[in-house]
Amino acid sequence: MEIRIGILNAPRELSFESDETASDVSSKVSAAISGGNPVLELNDNKGATFVVPVAAIGYVQIGAEETRRVGFVA
After folding, report:
1. 72: in domain
2. Which of 5, 15, 30, 49 is deepest in the core (most CB within 10 A)?
């Protein structure tokens, strides 16, 4: 699924694909924001780790958990 994180005072957003479920990502974001953790750590599907300061997060958009279709839609 695609995850987009808007960073305050930055012209571009952080966008990457992840193999985690939407509920897992949502719970990590909620725990980081409400738990007083200074950073949010998420992994993409290629093994990279993204560490974002919680104070700089403007928004987090979690994409739908659907597989990509191959071929033409009639």
Report:
1. no
2. 5
Residue 68 lies in a domain: no
Q: Residue 11 domain-assigned?
A: yes
Secondary structure (DSSP) of the chain: -EEEEEETT-SS-EEEE-SS-HHHHHHHHHHHHHTT-SEEEEE-TTS-EEEEEGGGEEEEEE----PPP-S---
User: What is the mean pLDDT of the segment spanning 45-64?
Assistant: 92
- Give residues with Cβ within 8 angstroms of 48, minimum separation 6: 16
How many domains would you assign to the chain? 1
Least Cα distance to 33 among 2, 59, 1, 62 occurs for 59
Over residues 18-30, the mean pLDDT reads 91
- Residue among 4, 9, 15, 13 nearest 56 (CA): 9
Examine residue 49 and state whether it is found in any structural domain, yes or no: yes
